[in-house]
Amino acid sequence: MTKLTAIIAKSDGGIACDAECSTSMLSEFCGGNTGNIVFWKAVCQMLNNYELVYWDVNPTEINTKYKALIWPASNDIGAHDAGQGGKGDYLQQINIPLFVVGLGVQAVNIGDEISISIETQRLAKIASQKTTSIGVRGAFSRNVLSSMGIKNTTIIGCPSLHINPNPNLGSIIAMGINRKWNKIIVAQNNIAMQGGIKHFNAEMKLIRWMIQRGGQYICQHPSYVFDLIKHQYNMVPQNIIENLIKLFEINNVKDIVEKFVRVYTLIPEWSYVIRQHDVCIGARLHSNLLAIANGVPGIVVPIDSRTREMAETCKLPIVEMEDIEKCTDMEELKGKIKWDGADAFDINRIHLRKNYTETTDI
Question: Which residues contact 196 (CB under 8 A, 6 or more apart)?
Answer without folding.
Answer: none
